[in-house]
Every structure is written in C-alpha cells, then in structure tokens.
Specification:
about 190 residues; Dihydrofolate Reductase, subunit A; binds NADP nicotinamide-adenine-dinucleotide phosphate; single chain; two-stranded antiparallel sheet; alpha/beta
Amino acid sequence: MTRTIFHTATTLDGYLATTDDALDWLFAVPGSDEAEAAFGGFLSGVGALVMGSATYEWLLRHERLLDEPEKWAGFYGTRPTFVFSSRSLPPVPGADIRLVSGGVQAQWESIRDAAAGGDVWIVGGGDLAGQFIDAGVLDEIRLSVAPVTLGSGKPLLPRVLGADRLTLVDAKRAGQFVELVYAVGGTSEA
Ligand SMILES: NC(=O)c1ccc[n+]([C@@H]2O[C@H](COP(=O)([O-])OP(=O)(O)OC[C@H]3O[C@@H](n4cnc5c(N)ncnc54)[C@H](OP(=O)(O)O)[C@@H]3O)[C@@H](O)[C@H]2O)c1
C-alpha cells in the first residue's frame, strides 16, 4: 500500500536550509555514511517524488542538472517527480518531471497513481509537506537530525501539530545524526 512520507534532513532547531537555500551545514557533518545507507533502503521503496520549486531549483543549480542531466537517474532512477510551482521551470532532459500547481487534493490521485504501489516521498520544503498534512494524505515524517543549529532559515514544518497528531514510532542513531520516525494521524482543522 502506498504511504506518503516526508523524509528530510533537518537542523536541531528545525531548519531545512538557510534563508538563501544553502545546505553547506549538512555536508559539513562528518561521517554521514550510516545516514546515507539508511536513506538508500528508504529510496528503494519509493515510487514517486514530490518537491517544491526551491528544492528543485537547488538541485538544478547544485548538481548542474541541465548540463549533466544523466546525474538525475543516478540519484532518483526513473521515478516520476512532481514539482509544485506557479512558474514554468525547465525539466531535466530525460527525467520524468511533472510540473504541477494548485492544491494538493487536486493532484493527489495522479501522484498516488504515478507511485504505482510504491511510497510517495515528499522531499520538501516544509510548507509543501504541510500542504500534504492539510490535505490529510501525509502518513509519516522521517527526520535525520543533524548536530547543527542555524538560528533562522527555511522551516522544517510550519504547522501546529500536537501530540494527538504525531506519534514517535522509531528513534535511532546513525553516526552524528538521529533518525526519528513519526506517524501522522488525525485531521487538520479547516
Ligand atoms: N535538509 C534537507 O535535506 C532538505 C530537503 C529538502 C529541501 N531542502 C532545501 O530546503 C529549501 C526548501 O525551500 P522552501 O521552503 O522554499 O520550499 P519548496 O517547497 O522547495 O519551494 C517553495 C516554492 O514552491 C512553490 N510551491 C509550493 N507549493 C505550491 C503549490 N501548492 N502550488 C504551486 N507552487 C507551489 C512556490 O514557488 P513558485 O510558485 O514561485 O515556484 C513556493 O515558493 C530548499 O533550499 C531546498 O533545497 C533541504
């Protein structure tokens, strides 16, 4: 059965990136091999990816994907990737990139069908993951918490969720990271 999972690395104080979308703090964490091995296991169960435009554009820039498009398949295989944006963004040549906009509810059936029984990975950012919670379709949050604070930046999850909505189902150490898994339950207030 398809599950929808927001899986991301985060700082200890709840940021996904600096305000100008830098991730240097993440790559500076020493010995990330264990966290990467755990991520490989997760990705094998993923059927489709979802991300916002800032995340997609970061990938385009950082990995120079318009010049070296073959790198995309090395990261994500042939999985369909839904990019939420109100703008017209360039697709990575050869990759199955689907630009979408508007409410999650309107896109949900296509996203779930594209996953073909695999899981849907919400890559980020935090507000987009929140939109999936608002739509009642996010099942799980998986966090790799880095030993870093930034003080400000792009928020992990700008929503109010009490302990009635989140249940800790796993916690373990992976090198310098803590891997936390929460089940998301209940429904959002309209
Ligand atoms: N730490 C990690 O492992 C990790 C993981 C993921 C991401 N990141 C980083 O974190 C940052 C996240 O950036 P962000 O918080 O700005 O989030 P984002 O979700 O990547 O991008 C937000 C943008 O997506 C578009 N968007 C979102 N929802 C939409 C909707 N329903 N319809 C149409 N467009 C929609 C909007 O831009 P437009 O309409 O203008 O296109 C919005 O400004 C990035 O720098 C990314 O690289 C880090």
